[in-house]
Design goal:
Layout (H helix, E strand, L loop, with lengths): L1 H56 L28 H6 L2 E6 L5 E5 L8 H14 L3 E4 L2 E7 L5 E7 L1 H76 L3 H26 L9 E4 H9 L3 H6 L3 E6 L4 E4 L1 H18 L5 E9 L2 E9 L32 H11 L2 E8 L3 E8 L1
Parallel strand pairs: 7-9
Antiparallel strand pairs: 1-2, 1-5, 3-4, 4-5, 6-8, 9-10, 10-12, 11-12
Helix pairs in contact: 1-4, 4-5, 5-9, 6-8, 8-9
């Protein structure tokens, strides 16, 4: 149990760390990308202004280029978007192509970039013209178009490979730092987890020790009570008082056994010896002692047990599990109701199912039936003889054997318990 709590503590802490790092790295990279895009837009806008001047000198009047998507318009220079000086402008790698309204190339300038030929530049421009978008991305370039009154369009292509590489490097470095920080936090959380849960562990250990000690201490008084009761009935005969004493002694003995079972299940690191069992035979044998109590209440018992089903499990635990589920079914089945027990192998799993009808289903969700000391009878009148801990022990027994158990309601009057192994 302590290990389970420790693992949950580590999982919760690392989930919080993961979310925090993801938000932090995502925000930093998004901010870096946004700043880089705005810088590219400012540089393209500067090139567009210069190109309009050139087009005027050529006898063309370039239109104002306001073609960036909303939110990406160039902003005035500030701390986050420093103004572009002449040195920065001289370092830009770009090329320009003018195309007339008929698609003919009028002018090509690749003097500011060495990796693109005039033919390649014209091909880029024609592809951009076919897209019919004023601005966009093409390979390692971002382009912006400026159209004159005579229909001639200037396409400016800015090389953004450097900025893209920088964003990629920042992304990889930030992800690497995040992974290192995450691993460091994992190591720190693992080292500190025992100290963090130590008060809880100590409290649980004291509770477990108390239950174990109390259970063992109760064995002797219970044995003496039942022995003296047997002697008294031999002398004076059985009466209603002796019957009540025996019933309550047996009830207390059952509670003690379940408490000891839970305490044993809670043992940290306890190894459960398991072997191959013929679970079909075990289930059939476990059902026999409950047939007579069920008959007294007029309960019909149906069984569908597949023969020769093998299960890798602990025999003592499985006997205890079957006893708890069948005892629970007999106690809570309504007068003249029915109980159905089934066992079968489905693919690689073995499924044990116990159903019983009820006069009234519990108001709580079905999974709450496994809570310790939960009773469908909120007044705790002992009407059915239960003590609200048997199903908790059943769940512990199943989970100790790497299985799963669940509960559900059917048809408004039936409770179904399903244990799945494998």
């Amino acid at each position: 149990m302590i290990r389970i709590i420790q693992r949950r503590f580590i999982f919760t802490a690392m989930t919080a760390v993961t979310v925090l790092l993801a938000v932090l790295i995502g925000t930093l990279n998004a901010a870096n990308a946004g700043i880089t895009v705005r810088q590219m837009n400012r540089r393209l806008q500067m090139l567009a202004d210069n190109e309009r001047k050139l087009m005027r000198n050529m006898g063309r009047d370039g239109e104002q280029a306001e073609d960036f998507p909303p939110g990406q318009e160039p902003k005035p220079g500030n701390f986050w978007n420093p103004p572009i000086d002449e040195d920065t402008a001289m370092s830009l790698r770009f090329f320009v192509v003018h195309i007339d309204a008929d698609g003919g190339v009028l002018y090509t300038d690749v003097s500011r970039i060495s990796s693109v030929t005039e033919k390649e530049a014209q091909s880029y421009a024609r592809k951009a013209a076919d897209k019919e978008k004023k601005t966009g991305y093409m390979g390692d370039f971002k382009y912006l178009s400026v159209t004159a009154e005579d229909g001639v369009t200037a396409f400016l292509f800015l090389d953004i490979s450097g900025q893209a590489h920088t964003m990629l490097v920042v992304g990889i470095l930030s992800a690497g730092v995040a992974v290192i920080c995450w691993l460091g936090m994992l190591l720190l959380v693992v080292l500190l987890s025992r100290r963090a849960i130590r008060p809880i562990a100590q409290n649980m250990e004291r509770q477990k020790q108390f239950v174990t000690d109390a259970g063992h201490e109760l064995k002797t008084p219970l044995a003496i009570i039942l022995t003296n009761l047997d002697a008294m009935e031999l002398i004076n005969g059985e009466n209603k008082w002796s019957k009540n004493i025996r019933m309550q002694a047996k009830r207390l003995n059952g509670l003690m056994q379940n408490l000891l079972t839970l305490a044993k299940m809670d043992e940290a690191g306890a190894e459960v010896p398991m072997s191959d069992l013929v679970i079909s035979q075990l289930a059939a044998e476990a059902l026999q002692p409950f047939l007579e109590p069920a008959a007294w209440k007029g309960i019909r018992v149906e069984s569908d047990i597949e023969p020769d089903v093998l299960l890798f499990a602990n025999q003592e635990y499985m006997q205890r599990l079957l006893s708890i589920l069948l005892d629970n079914a007999v106690k809570y089945a309504n007068q003249n109701g029915w109980i159905a027990v089934s066992l079968h192998k489905s693919e690689k799993a073995v499924i044990l199912q116990v159903k019983n009808t009820c006069a009234q289903l519990p108001e709580a969700a079905a999974d709450k039936l496994f809570d310790r000391f939960y009773r469908g009878d909120s007044a705790r009148t002992q009407k059915n003889g239960g003590y609200g801990i048997g199903l908790s022990a059943a769940r512990a027994l199943v989970e100790a054997q790497k299985g799963k158990i669940s509960a559900k309601y059917e048809n408004g009057d039936t409770v179904v318990f399903t244990a799945r192994f494998g």
